[in-house]
């Protein structure tokens, strides 16, 4: 019988809420994305996992709040942004190393 640690539960929990788009409050749009392709995410998770996103979101606070703000990341392609977000929600190594390696230059 396997036991899960708190870390395992939180990691799988974050991945689950991303996949289910549960209570998302932010949409990320890459430079080559249409509005339909926008990636749903959670401000809290992105800010906790990335100082860059934290600063971007802090500057967004001055704007009028809405249920789903859109943050344009024009420097990245959709596939790159999607991989980055997936990585940020998964601490368990479930994002393949090949997928990360394919986009590693975009994350610098």
UniProtKB/TrEMBL annotation:
Pathway: Protein modification; protein ubiquitination
Domain BTB: 24-97
Name of the protein: BTB domain-containing protein
Organism encoding this protein: Brassica carinata
TM annotation in the entry: none
Primary role: May act as a substrate-specific adapter of an E3 ubiquitin-protein ligase complex (CUL3-RBX1-BTB) which mediates the ubiquitination and subsequent proteasomal degradation of target proteins.
PROSITE patterns on file: BTB
Coiled-coil segments on the chain, per record: none
